[in-house]
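Structural biology now treats backbone shape like a language. To illustrate, our science desk offers a sequence and the tokens encoding its fold:
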Amino acid sequence: MEFKRGRYSWVLRPVLIVSDLVILNIFSVVLLKFNKQDLYFFPIELFNDKNVLYLIYSIVFWLLSTHFLKFYKVYRYTSLLNILSLIIKQFFVYSILVYAFVGFFRSINIEVDLALEYLFCAFGAISFIKLLSYYVLKYFRIYLKGNLRNIILIGSGYSVDELKKVFNKKELGYNVKAVFSNTESDRSGSIEDSFNYLKQNKDNIDEIYCSINDLEEKDINEYVRYANLNYCNIKFIPDTKKLFTKCFKTDYYNYVPVLSIQEVALNNDVNKFLKRTFDIVFSLFIIIFVLSWGSVILFILIKLESKGPLIYKHKRTGISYHPFNCYKYRSLTVTKESKGTYVTENDKRLTVIGKFIRRTSIDELPQFINVLKGDMSVVGPRPHMLSYTDDYSKKINKYNFIFRHNVKPGVTGLAQIKGYRGEIKCDKDIINRVKYDIFYIENWSALLDVKIIFQTIINIIKGDDNAY
């Protein structure tokens, strides 16, 4: 997800969209509806039925076509060649849409040559404004020192050096505030020093560029967490092609690839609202109609067998590596959490009632409180202990592990219904768990959530060999 702080250039994109739509419709009126003698009546005829029909058509299909072709996805590092390529592709696609309009509404008699003249004139004006805005911004950055983006670089190597050359181009508007590395002599400090620097300059850094090969997992976690808490962008610099993955969006700064966390369907505003609404309704239902009376019964049974609280909280890794207190009904005789405390089969710490509530997954029900609070979702990747996050990340692709933490963890998930839950007996268990988590994130839909919930209920009724 891209964050923008203290900038006004974001206004440019909607201004260009409105400007292009105005051009399309003004030229359609002038060239397609009037000859030279009729121009006197232009204000009167502007809103006749045919023009209104094309106005609606042009708005809908221009917005759709530009969205799919990413016509307005132009950034400071986008080359002139890429912009010209976007204009040509949009010209051909929109030409097809215009001739489709003429063919469908046969009552509107327009000559082919006149329609082509309209397209050339309109796109000439659109191209002029698009290129003008591109060069005006360059001028603004070079001579007026505006529209600058403050960045820091983490790491070393060939790709980092090439990226420095790109950032040194004044017309791009990048201001390299510091470079941190454990190997280079020409640097602002070590990688460890970068965390203190970020704390002292948290309102003055817009983007962090990290060479992934130079960092340990705990460092990556800290950078990702910092970026999300302080609304700055984090991007990753790969050294080899094997690191490319569809989990990440690849941008090219000249010919240097830079990866950023892909915004998945699960995280767009509409889907986040729908999923959050479902989470609130579903968790309230469970809390009111199950936890309200179930907790009283379990309180008595658990207290009769062992001392300790009914519900205990334990730290788990949440979205963007943000730690949170995860709630569970106590099923063990001890509540202190330490590394290596995943419950094993026939674990001596288990109480009699604890074995039952774990076997039936009842111990997970208090996590609907986490869902209501917003720490978790009903469906999503299961949260790990903090101590295991670093261990597991060393056994799987770093990018997949980062991507997994780009969404809220869930009470249940795709990996769980496929049998990958509970104790990690071998590397294959965690690799497959993450594989299913990535599949869920990339292929999320409301129906998939419903399917996972129903399958979870079926598994609870049938019993799960890994639920202990």
Summary: The mean pLDDT is 80.
